[in-house]
């Protein structure tokens, strides 16, 4: 996801960041945590400076994450106390309902659960720790890394791929044999059925 934003940067406690989606791929988070641990400590700062977390200021001036949820959860799991954020919009004066409607209409939130069903705004977790695992989001991320589709700037593009795969592969198959599910998913990603999705690379 890309944003036209002013370079208003600040450090915010990771445990104070508010999500704007319900799910993440926990396998994705685990991969990020492993990479963080493998990175030389002296490069941590530069990495974070290259991966600024886009946020909007909401009611009570809370910082709402509108991208990089996986990274934020990984940093929290690794004990990182603060993350550099860039403030995309100041919506602190809006009432809560108006705030969520605004985010929804800007494509700055994803209120879908781990079954791909749209939920009410109130179902979005208040903290990063409450984010729910969607194994198909992890599967979509692995498909992209395997060359199944290209990274796209469309908001929540990998969630669209996750929803596509959810309709083609049984969840229990993903949970029982991820490698086999990945093989099937890459084939599906290159089929005509996936041609409508962002980043589709065409047939094999």
Give the termini separation: 27 Å
Tell me roughly what share of residues is in helical segments: 25-40%
CATH class of the largest domain: Alpha Beta
Strand order of the largest sheet: 1-5-3-4
List the total number of helices.
Answer: 8
What is the 3D form? Answer: globular
Mean pLDDT across residues: 93
Radius of gyration: 17 Å
Q: What's the CATH topology name of the largest domain?
A: Conserved hypothetical protein from pyrococcus furiosus pfu- 392566-001, ParB domain
Order of helices and strands: EEHHEEHEHEHHHH
What is the SS-derived class? alpha/beta
Domain unit count: 2
CATH architecture of the largest domain: Alpha-Beta Complex
Low-confidence stretches: none
What does this structure look like?
The chain has eight helices and six strands; from the N terminus they run E-E-H-H-E-E-H-E-H-E-H-H-H-H. It folds into two domains: 9-133, Conserved hypothetical protein from pyrococcus furiosus pfu- 392566-001, ParB domain (Alpha-Beta Complex), CATH 3.90.1530.10; 135-191, Helicase, Ruva Protein, domain 3. 39% of the residues lie in helices and 13% in strands. The radius of gyration is 17 Å and the shape is globular. It has helices at residues 26-38, 44-50, 69-77, 96-106, 135-145, 157-166, 171-176, 178-189; strands at 9-13, 23-24, 53-57, 63-65, 82-90, 132-133. With 204 residues, the protein is α/β, with parallel strands linked by helices. The strands form two sheets. It has a four-stranded mixed sheet. Strands 2-6 form a two-stranded parallel ribbon.
